[in-house]
Q: What sequence folds into this?
């Protein structure tokens, strides 16, 4: 609290809360705040999706990115290209992680794994009425949910005229508003540049979520299209895509206190929650997640020990678990450090005073019903986490259901199983080849089942429990699982063959795994339906909560933003250090010399020799920052980002790229859950990127192509 | 190196090296540097021992202190009063560590343990010629040493007319210069104020040598004399002493960058060393010391486990070991972090180039002989560390030798055994009652013997080895040690009785410990003599090294200071934060709120409830510092201090007390050995002291007595 207090004394202008992942059209509402933060351009210039700089920002699926040249060059994070670009193009002999990669011309650029995409948002239109059309007449929440799904599917299929565009119905404010997001899809994306992992992953897991940080978390891709400009999968004849606009890159960078924005695609947040949910998360939910993840990590470690191939296959899942574990443990710590429970309780009490005095009886009823529903669901969801932790069953279940759905006309199928989804499903099944091993999958499944078994009978799925004899002895369950895993479909090639088969062919099989799936198929569909109905009910009740929240925010004169949902968002703020501990200040910038300080000659602190020599010789080139006394490597700012923002361009008030956002700080990562003013976003500095291109990679062609502001 | 470099950019004026524990008379030499540091007063005002502020500074034996009122009130560190004041006055029922202590008037003030003293330096006169008189005619170094000792004793006994003064011959520059230090001795010192240990020791061992720090390391004493002004042991009739001058206390404190000085009694340094010594220390010596201390801590832990009384008795020795261990391990780390070996090698090479070009053949011979001698002694000294680690033997050996010496006329006795020393010896033997237990002493002795035994025969003392059968089996040695420890003098009361006996009475004893001492007495004296001779030889050779160093320093235009030797010294510099790690800055001040951050409700982080309430209520009184945003607790500056400086007044350019120096930082504590510009001194802020007196202790009488500058 003191830190905020002293900040108030010294920096009154900067203290306007930075909270918010805003939709571009909301920016004019924030004019005063943007001015206070140091933005002196026309606010309308950042409110239009079709205008620069918004239309230079793209999604590459899970990560954000930005065009940085008229020839489709794209900047994103190193960690966003590890799988589909580096791992895909690496062999034992030619390990791009070890060497890094710099294409010397277009021909040299490397293709990406199937399914790699660039998405450019071209419009976002409100369609709430169309999505909800007919729901008023529905008898129950299940039918309501069905109507909404059918409406959505119709809207999407009407929208997706060709495979060049992707259309998605996006829910804002928990279904209070729906929007149709239209995106251009580019299907040929190639690797142009990535540093070696000893730069791009410098600090590795140890420094993950940490600051001071020294990670060169940048990489360059290029979008390609057919010569006629249409979207086309990889083809030698394809040509570089010409985006409408692109970002210039600043060689001057930013300095302490300077205005910055991040534009990107934050994945999801749950900030608009009732106190009942927050209270549950902070007192139980986080702890249970930590338990689940910790055990997951242990299971992978125990079962892959000494098996190099298996270790590699499960490296992704494990590092995902570890990443999430570190994050959620940090959030748990942070919630205590920043006393979140107390402050949220206070906020809720205030909100409830507003409700008491202003809401209608029907609204109050809805709110009470929402709180009851939340309470009832919490235990059930806890058990559900331990249901079905078998990738084998999941893969084949999906094939089975897909075959079943394929029997219906396209528009009647469940979403996710339509024609447009077929390739994605196939690619996901194909991935079993490098991320699945039956022996390990089985061990994890069995362990999770043990925990699932311990839940009250009424929290478990009856058919699933029966099929696996969960009310019998461990040996009985083991026998069933052994039988399931004796299936021929533990072989990924067989899985792919199965994918091509008809539902009739599949059901004719005597395979024990197929038989098991048949035994739980109806129940599974029933649960899906039930959850859809519950979701619809919660959504309906929640929309009352949202309405009351909006009233309340209006009353206290604050704009409100929708939870992140993977759509294009803007957050603004300032480059800013941080004090978390009396007497110690995190400075806003780190520098090249910090890389040498951390260097140990061993992964993850094994800086390449040429990099070290350049630093020792203080060969800063034109990227020396006087205020930092060196070339800046990473910097922190009070921007409000979350997962999905990785690779987002950090831009200055002139919309020049000054960095790429890639991480948060573990001490304040609770802000991902509930915003706190101490939250900091870590970006890799544009000057470190340019310095690497010039001095380390000597990428003259790339430097010539990009527009550098000196 | 980068940190220095960036400091150069931003603070050119502050960069003049702060190295140096200067004698007051040297201050005029440093006028330019003092001005650059921000001192704008007359430089001569800090060059005279008889003038303010020098004569307000006192030694309390091992610690420094300062008069802060006309009635003899003295400010020093809390950790300097723990033994002789707090422990001495504490009982189970009235534990001053737990409660703290605030005298409400003179009568309320508490007496101190026998031997507690205040020393006020009244003169320091060069007497090199008198000390060395006659040494030219000596045949060998042993006689030379004897002459020096005899001369010194004569000078001291001529000087010490009465027990009101203490005279000491002090060696500067390894015996290149001798000075006679005359001090007024005050024998009645009482405890006036000490916070509870939960404030005065806040952070305890964990925070020892650490920053950011939040320790209230302050306490107040009062000097008393007889009504006629003469020095007298504790007596109800004694009256407060009126010092010639005293320091005012600043309630405004200092701010970042401000000029500060520390005046005090640094104990000893070894900065004027040859590279041969530094090289040995950094590659072997430090590691061997760490080994010795680590084992010492283990031995105490193993042998006091579960025995509360023994734990208490060895608490002092253990914490001494721990403190030293932490320090020397930090120095070892620091020597590597700051690449000391390389930089010292470079400095030495430069010095040797000067020697090559400028020294006479005789001087070069002396330097070569010095290097040979150092090399020859290193192994021997290593073994000697493990010789005689028995407190029992040491106590009784001292009594034995004292009785022997007492047979000679006073002036002929070895120094340390004269009439003037009798009380001190007795007090030290008395201390066995609360810091000695035969069983544990024996275990430590045996373990150290095991290591001693392993040294080459020619590195060990032959009589001692023979008496303890060190070349026999462990069992034989054990039997001898058992016999020694069967002595009746394992009882401290018996030791005190023995102290009163004559040499004849003692030698008539059949006690096995006395017998053992008799068997090694001659050898021990022989070794003393030999070491004296070696010291004299080294001193002689070293004086050539000093002379060459002085020439060299003159050539490079730098003043040179003598190694710390317990005499009054001045160091000056600036309040200054520190950056040791890229991206992280230690701020110059810590604040009250940091106490709450660290509070755990358990020692050593158990802040008293009233303190916490005051902080929570932001009850800063008149001690709020705008630049800190709170009441400052501790601060760091680039002052050059060492052991013995504890309790030293940190004063501003107006000679007002702004803090009390109490510690260094473990990361830069190597500066204690060789100065580095990154070194920082930690002081407790005067504002925290005043705030405690006013808000926590509510010590109106004390606040009324001191001169507070607001």
A:
């Amino acid at each position: 609290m003191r830190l905020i207090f002293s900040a108030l004394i010294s920096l009154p202008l900067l203290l306007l809360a930075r909270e918010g992942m805003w939709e571009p059209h909301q920016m004019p509402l924030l004019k005063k705040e943007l001015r206070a933060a140091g933005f002196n351009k026309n606010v309308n210039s950042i409110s239009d999706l079709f205008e620069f700089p918004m239309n230079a920002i793209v999604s590459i699926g899970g990560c954000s990115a930005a065009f940085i040249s008229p020839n489709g060059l794209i900047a994103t994070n190193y960690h966003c290209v590890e799988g589909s670009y580096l791992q895909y193009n690496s062999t034992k002999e030619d390990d791009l992680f070890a060497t890094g990669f710099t294409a010397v011309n277009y021909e040299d650029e490397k293709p990406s794994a199937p399914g790699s995409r660039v998405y450019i948002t071209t419009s976002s239109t409100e369609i709430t009425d169309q999505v909800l059309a007919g729901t008023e007449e529905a008898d129950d929440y299940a039918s309501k949910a069905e109507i909404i799904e059918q409406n959505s599917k119709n809207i999407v299929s009407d929208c997706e005229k060709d495979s060049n565009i992707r259309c998605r119905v996006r829910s804002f404010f928990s279904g209070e508003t729906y929007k149709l997001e239209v995106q251009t899809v580019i299907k040929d994306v190639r690797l142009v540049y990535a540093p070696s992992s000893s730069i791009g992953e410098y600090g590795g897991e140890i420094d993950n979520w940490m600051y001071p940080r020294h990670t060169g978390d940048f990489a360059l891709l290029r979008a390609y299209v057919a010569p006629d400009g249409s979207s086309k999968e990889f083809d030698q004849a394809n040509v570089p895509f010409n985006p409408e606009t692109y970002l210039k890159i600043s060689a001057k960078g930013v300095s302490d206190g300077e205005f910055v924005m991040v534009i990107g695609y934050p994945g999801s947040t749950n900030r608009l929650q009732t106190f009942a949910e927050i209270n549950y998360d902070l007192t139980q939910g986080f702890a249970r997640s930590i338990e689940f993840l910790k055990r997951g990590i242990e299971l992978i470690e125990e079962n892959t020990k000494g098996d190099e191939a298996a270790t590699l296959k499960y490296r992704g899942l494990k590092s995902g678990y570890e990443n999430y574990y570190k994050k959620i443990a940090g959030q748990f710590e942070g919630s205590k450090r920043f006393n979140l429970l107390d402050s949220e309780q206070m906020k809720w009490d205030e909100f409830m005073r507003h409700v008491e005095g202003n809401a209608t009886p029907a609204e109050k009823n809805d709110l009470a019903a929402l709180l009851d529903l939340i309470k009832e669901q919490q235990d059930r969801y806890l058990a559900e986490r331990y249901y079905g932790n078998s990738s084998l069953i999941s893969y084949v279940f999906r094939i089975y259901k897909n075959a079943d759905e394929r029997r219906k006309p396209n528009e009647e199928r469940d979403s996710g199983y339509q024609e447009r989804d077929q390739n994605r499903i196939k690619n996901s099944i194909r991935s079993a080849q490098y991320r699945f091993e039956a022996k390990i999958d089985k061990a994890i499944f069995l362990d999770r089942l043990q925990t699932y078994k311990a839940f009250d009978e009424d929290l478990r799925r009856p058919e699933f429990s029966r099929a696996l004899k969960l009310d019998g002895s461990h040996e009985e369950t083991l026998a069933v699982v052994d039988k399931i895993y004796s299936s021929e479909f533990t072989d990924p090639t067989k899985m792919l063959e199965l994918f091509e088969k008809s539902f009739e062919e599949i059901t004719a099989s005597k395979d024990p795994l197929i038989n098991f799936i048949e035994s739980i198929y109806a129940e599974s569909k029933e649960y899906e339906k039930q959850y859809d109905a519950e979701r619809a009910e919660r959504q309906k009740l929640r929309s009352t909560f949202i309405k009351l929240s909006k009233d309340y925010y209006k009353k206290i004169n604050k704009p409100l933003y929708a939870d992140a949902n993977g759509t294009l968002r803007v957050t603004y703020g300032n480059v800013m250090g941080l004090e978390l501990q009396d007497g110690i200040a995190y400075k806003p910038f780190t520098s090249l010399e910090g890389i040498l300080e951390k260097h140990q000659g061993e992964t993850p602190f094994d800086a390449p020799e040429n990099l070290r020599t350049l630093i020792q010789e203080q060969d800063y080139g034109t990227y020396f920052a006087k205020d930092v006394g060196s070339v800046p490597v990473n910097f922190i700012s009070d921007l409000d980002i979350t997962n999905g923002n990785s690779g987002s361009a950090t831009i200055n008030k002139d919309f020049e790229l000054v960095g790429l956002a890639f991480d948060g700080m573990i001490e304040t990562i609770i802000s991902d859950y509930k915003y706190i003013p101490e939250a900091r976003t870590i970006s890799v500095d544009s000057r470190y990127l340019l310095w690497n291109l010039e001095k380390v990679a000597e990428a003259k062609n790339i430097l010539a192509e990009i527009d550098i502001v000196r």
